[in-house]
Each structure stands twice: as structure tokens, then as C-alpha cells.
Amino acid sequence: MKHIIVDCDTGIDDSIAILYALKSNKLHVEGFTTVYGNTSSMQAAENTLRLIKLAKCGYDIPVLVGANESMTGDAEPYPVHIHGDNGIGNVELPESEQKPLNEDAADFIIKKAEELKGDLTIVALGRLTNIAAALEKDPRLPYKIKHMVVMGGAFHKPGNISPYAEANIYGDAKASDIVFRAGFPMTVVGLDVTMETFLSARDITLLCKYCREENREVVQYIQSALEYYFQFSYESMGCLDNSVVHDPLAMVIAEDPSIGEYRMVRAAVEYENKEFRGMIKRDEGFIPVYDHDEILYCIRVNSDLAVRRLLSVF
Ligand code: BDR
Ligand code: CA
């Protein structure tokens, strides 16, 4: 069982990753910390609480509201055309009785890393603002966790927010740079692989047919939320009834890294030059010294297997 904290900006693809984590019997979610991005960090926490209730996972999971702006204070408008006004495709899920914990998200990450004595994996599905804040408070954090999986970046493919940058990395490029250079044992799952992994309307129709009875409501939610997402996918990329799903792939990889292939790099992120903001600057030529100074970035993935895994938990 992997113990994870999910740091997320609960939009549509985050929500599917969250539901996967809650349903997987190989992952134990220690808590959720939220960050602005697809929606505000407050709304992301509200969405997460409702998803926990929907998943009926049988144990209380702390949800903490994290950063609501980037380290440099830049505010981007929320992408309501992708994730809807409420972040989850305007699907109205029943309210949860649970409230967010009144604790600092960065402190919570540090506390859990200490409690779990090297056995914590962080899965970061949004901007890296909370992780950078935790690092600022505890520079030894990289040495206290087992691993971190980050959905973000584009190494060989073009970006999705600018020609050079992916949205999560661009959204707080300074935090990304700090985190990328901090020595975290980390895997980066970027557009190079997420843009190759599609979920289709047919997959979801089959899922509706074959899901376990106890997951019916969860699957109905996924279907409704994806309808909104597919619309964006059609308008922006011409994909008919299917879409790439970024965050769920990162979650499946966090659970089982063997579905991907990786290259070891040392990387930094451009945050000063406006045009290239969020661009990953990599150095593949270094000799790893096994002091946690390397990043594994995912260059290939078995997409069919990833999608089958994703659907199998429901
Ligand atoms: C990333 O940006 C967000 O919109 C998605 O949730 C994903 O984490 C993809 O660029
Ligand atoms: Ca996300």
C-alpha cells in the first residue's frame, strides 16, 4: 500500500484521478491539499470533499485549502471553458458534511512526511505552489519523502498554455523552478505522455455497463463531467468524443511506475523571461550522484494498459 498526499486543483481530470486514488486498493490517501488553477483552492477543496462523499471510501480523509495565488502573485483567470464554473463541469454533487481542516496545507505536508518516516508519496496534480511553500518551511522535505509524482511540463512536445509551457508549470513557474531544483526524488509526467493517452466516450459507455454496482454513482459522475471536457477537447483539438486525461495518468503512474519509461534529467524552469515562462530547461548530460538530485521524466507510457488500469477500479 502506498501512502499518498494528493495536491490538486480539483478540475475534471483531477477529479477522475482522485476517484481512482480513493478506489485503488494499492493507494492509501493520507490527505488532500488544494491549490488554485482549474478553479480556486477553496472550490477545489469543496469539490474534493464532495468526491470523497461520492466515493464512499469509508474513512475520513483530511482536506486542506492551500495557496490561492502563485508565489509571485500572478492571477490567471480560471479556465471555465475547460472545467466549468465549479471546476467539475458544472456537475452538482451532493454536499459533504465534512469541512476542510483548519490547518496550513504546507505544514500538513511536512507533518505527514515526518509521521510516515520516509514512506510518503506526494502526487502533485496542479501548480507546485504548496510544495514550494512546504519546502520553504522545511528544506529537508525532499529527504523525508519516498517519492513525488508531478503532472506537469512538456519536454519534447509543445506546451498547452504557450508554445513552450504546460499549464501547471506555467501557472507558478517560480514555484516549479524551486521544486525542480530542490533534490526531490521525483517523476514528472508531462504532456509528452499525457497527450498520448485518451479516454473515449466508448470507454465510458462500457464502464457504465460493466462497473461494480457500488460504483454506479461514481461512474455516472465521471460520464457527466467528461461530457463537458469532451466538448472542450472537440473545440480545441477536434477530438470527437474523446480526450486526453492528464491527471489520471499521473495517478496511475504513481501507483505503478512500471507502465512508463523514464529518462533521468536535471531540470530547471524558466520564470523570469515572459515569453518562455514555464519552459523546462533540462540537462540530460549529467552524471547522477544518487543524492536525490535527479528527476525521472516519463518519455513513454503503455497508454492502453494505463486506461485499462484506470477503468478497472470502478
Ligand atoms: C494540467 O492542467 C490542468 O488543467 C489539468 O488539471 C492538468 O493538471 C494539464 O496541463
Ligand atoms: Ca490538475
UniProtKB/TrEMBL annotation:
CDD domains: nuc_hydro_CaPnhB. Keywords: Glycosidase, Hydrolase. SUPFAM superfamilies: Nucleoside hydrolase. It comes from the Bacteria. Residues 4-281 form the Inosine/uridine-preferring nucleoside hydrolase domain. This is Inosine/uridine-preferring nucleoside hydrolase. It holds the Pfam family IU_nuc_hydro. GO terms for cellular component: cytosol. InterPro entries: Inosine/uridine_hydrolase_dom (IPR001910), IUNH (IPR023186), Ribo_hydro-like (IPR036452). GO terms for molecular function: purine nucleosidase activity. GO terms for biological process: purine nucleoside catabolic process. It comes from Lacrimispora saccharolytica (strain ATCC 35040 / DSM 2544 / NRCC 2533 / WM1).
